[in-house]
Amino acid sequence: MKEDVSSIDSPPTASDQPASPPAAEQPAGRKRRSRAKSKATAVAIEQRIGHSFADPSLLNTALTHVSALKSARNRADSYQRLEFLGDHVLGLVVSDMLYRAFPNADEGELSKRLADLVRKETCADVARSLDLDEGIRLGTVGAGAGARLRKSVLGDICEAVIGAVYLDGGYPAAADFVQRNWTERMKKPARSLRDPKTVLQEWAQGKGLPTPVYREVERTGPHHDPQFRVAVSLPGLEDAEGIGGSKRAAEKVAASVMLAREGVSGSNDV
């Protein structure tokens, strides 16, 4: 009697192998890895800024650009509102720092120092020093566009982080963050704080000379985009000239040229 070979177990075929995880499980795995990476990035940023958030969503919002939102109508979920708050907290903290650090400075000097310290370029510099750009959440953009966007919003992100720290830890936490990142910048301003025309006038007075005299030498260019050449004169000194898009700008350049030529320090603000 022939054996019924159909009843003999045959080796498993590829179709008999355990099925791969359903496709739905694969995106879920990617999402878990993405969340883990985001959490690790957030922890690293917290360490760099020196504040551990009791409410992590605040930091997440501070790092979220409006392009990353599902709907433009949910702009409140981006960094913009926190930026508004952080801008004013920064202004208050820096104003207090300046008031205490420069007891002999008048209101005008304090205002110039404040403007230099809270401008977007300074905030962006702080953001770069803390590598905040690593955590910025953007929508789907090209690599080059994403890099440019990150650079353009760095100052805003920094202010938003200040706002987030303020909401999470109160004024002391925000003040601590600002003091740690702005004190050295306060001591060594990136830009000159004094108008070169003022510096030249004070220097001339100290030499017993009259007030410098400025005169327009030439005006060129179209009416909507003129260029002025201005000379500044002081008795016993060779005239110095400057060019600018306005008479005042050209005067400042001329004053700076004369100051540099005479070896006078105190301003390079042109």
CATH topology of the largest domain: Ribonuclease iii, N-terminal Endonuclease Domain, Chain A
User: What order do the helices and strands follow?
Assistant: HHHHHHHEEEH
Give me the number of helical elements.
8
- CATH architecture label of the largest domain: Orthogonal Bundle
Outline type: elongated
Sheet with most strands: 3 strands, antiparallel
Cα radius of gyration in angstroms: 31 Å
Tell me the span between the first and last alpha carbons: 109 Å
Description:
- The longest helix has 45 residues, at 143-187.
- The chain starts with 24 loop residues before the first helix and ends in a 9-residue tail after the last helix.
- Strands 1-2-3 form a three-stranded antiparallel sheet, covered by helices on one side.
- It is built from eight helices and three strands.
- It is mostly helical.
- Helix 3 packs parallel to helix 6 and helix 5 packs across helix 6 (143-187).
- It is elongated and about 80 Å long.
- It has two domains: 32-187, Orthogonal Bundle (Ribonuclease iii, N-terminal Endonuclease Domain, Chain A); 196-261, Double Stranded RNA Binding Domain (2-Layer Sandwich), CATH 3.30.160.
